[in-house]
């Protein structure tokens, strides 16, 4: 699903003749297939079953998306004990551990699972390696919900590492029987360094067939890498708790281009734009396009009259809805559809 970057395609969206300051609007940016699916699941559940619908944790890590769904009737909770017995609850795109699924079952909750299929893939790998007797090293940020969920598949044999130092300090029962997995939203460069350190420490370590970092994380980072050198500033639209958005800021900063994470246009500090002629704008995988457009409009009021959309690679990924939703919206047997 990852596409190799070729020569970027530039599409001029707005060009004021006198403009000397430019916006480079990166593509792909914003919503990934897992986020589109998760947000659709909540909306369809609200339409089909009616409010309230409970959602465990933020459905995706974006304040605007969460508050918009809350206005429509979704109730966000941190843990399942806040959900009334027998109620309908949605698991977020970041996934849950088997322990959480067990609590939902005990409480008689009607579960709709919005876990991204690419997160589920990592869970399946964790189960497979654990069954084969491997000690598991999960490269990721231990406070992130996705990591909690994946670790929960095999908690007795899984250790989470976030730094090369932690890799060097790892102790396992059998150094020849170690497998690694990664969080889906890591920095590609950081993950590469960590995996290299793991291979040095455990020469016989095994890993997934294809890397766990997802296509959307990779594509958005590749787009920043392609454009950051030609920009004076990179603005990343995304919330503070969005892992892949934070990684985009780091990618830019590591290339020497100043970068900030903003939830919305109002977060832009005017002094950031001092002596800036080219500002690149992108968005994390959970940030909606409406917020990106508000940022562009704000920049236009500050003299950035030319807007070039720079498409570094095409992206066209879609995921199907989970069976609980497909079943719920299926027409009743014998129902007649009117119209074309
Ligand atoms: S960022 Fe990647 S893993 Fe996370 S929801 Fe999007 S596609 Fe899935």
Describe this structure as you would to a colleague.
The chain has helices at 33-49, 63-71, 98-106, 117-131, 145-151, 164-168, 188-201, 215-227, 243-254, 289-301, 323-329, and strands spanning 9-14, 22-27, 53-56, 74-77, 88-91, 110-113, 135-139, 158-161, 178-182, 233-237, 258-262, 278-283, 306-311. With 340 residues, the protein is α/β, with parallel strands linked by helices. The strands form three sheets. A six-stranded mixed β-sheet has the order 1-13-2-12-10-11, with helices on both faces. α4 runs parallel beside α5 (145-151) and α8 (215-227) runs parallel beside α9. The chain binds iron/sulfur cluster. The site of iron/sulfur cluster has 15 residues, from α1, α4 and α8. Isopentenyl diphosphate binds at residues 61, 94, 144, 242-244, 286. [4Fe-4S] cluster binds at residues 32, 116, 214. It comes from Terriglobus albidus. Dimethylallyl diphosphate binds at residues 61, 94, 144, 242-244, 286.
Topology, pairings included?
Layout: E1 9-14, E2 22-27, H1 33-49, E3 53-56, H2 63-71, E4 74-77, E5 88-91, H3 98-106, E6 110-113, H4 117-131, E7 135-139, H5 145-151, E8 158-161, H6 164-168, E9 178-182, H7 188-201, H8 215-227, E10 233-237, H9 243-254, E11 258-262, E12 278-283, H10 289-301, E13 306-311, H11 323-329
Parallel strand pairs: 2-12, 2-13, 3-4, 3-5, 5-6, 7-8, 7-9, 10-11, 10-12
Antiparallel strand pairs: 1-13
Helix pairs in contact: 4-5, 8-9
The structure holds iron/sulfur cluster.
Q: What's the short version?
A:
36% of the residues lie in helices and 19% in strands.
């Amino acid at each position: 699903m990852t596409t190799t970057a070729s020569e970027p395609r530039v599409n001029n969206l707005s060009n004021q003749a006198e403009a000397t300051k430019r916006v480079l609007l990166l593509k792909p940016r914003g919503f990934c297939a897992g986020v589109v699916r998760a947000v659709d699941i909540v909306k369809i559940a609200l339409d089909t079953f009616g409010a309230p619908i409970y959602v465990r944790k933020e459905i995706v890590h974006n304040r605007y998306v969460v508050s918009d769904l809350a206005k429509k009737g979704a109730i966000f909770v941190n843990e399942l004990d806040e959900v009334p017995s027998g109620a309908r609850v949605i698991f977020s795109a970041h996934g849950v551990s088997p322990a959480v699924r067990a609590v939902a079952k005990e409480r008689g909750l009607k579960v709709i699972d919005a876990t991204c299929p690419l997160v589920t893939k990592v869970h399946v790998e964790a189960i497979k390696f654990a069954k084969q007797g491997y000690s598991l090293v999960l490269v990721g940020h231990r406070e992130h919900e996705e990591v909690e969920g994946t670790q929960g598949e095999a908690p007795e044999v899984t250790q989470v590492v976030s730094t090369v130092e932690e890799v060097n300090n790892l102790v396992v029962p059998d150094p020849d029987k170690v497998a690694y997995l990664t969080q889906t939203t890591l920095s590609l460069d950081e993950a590469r360094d960590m995996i290299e350190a793991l291979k040095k420490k455990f020469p016989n370590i095994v890993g997934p067939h294809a890397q766990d970092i997802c296509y959307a994380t990779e594509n958005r980072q590749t787009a920043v890498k392609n454009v950051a050198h030609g920009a004076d500033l990179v603005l990343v639209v995304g919330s503070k708790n969005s892992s892949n958005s934070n990684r985009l800021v780091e990618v830019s900063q590591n290339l020497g281009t100043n970068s900030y994470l903003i939830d919305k246009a109002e977060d832009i500090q005017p002094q950031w734009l001092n002596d800036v002629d080219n500002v690149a704008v992108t968005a994390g995988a959970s940030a909606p396009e409406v917020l990106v457009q508000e940022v562009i409009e704000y920049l236009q009021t500050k003299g950035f009259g030319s807007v070039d959309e720079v498409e570094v690679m095409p992206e066209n990924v879609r995921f199907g809805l989970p069976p609980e939703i497909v079943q719920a919206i299926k027409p009743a047997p014998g129902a007649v559809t009117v119209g074309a």
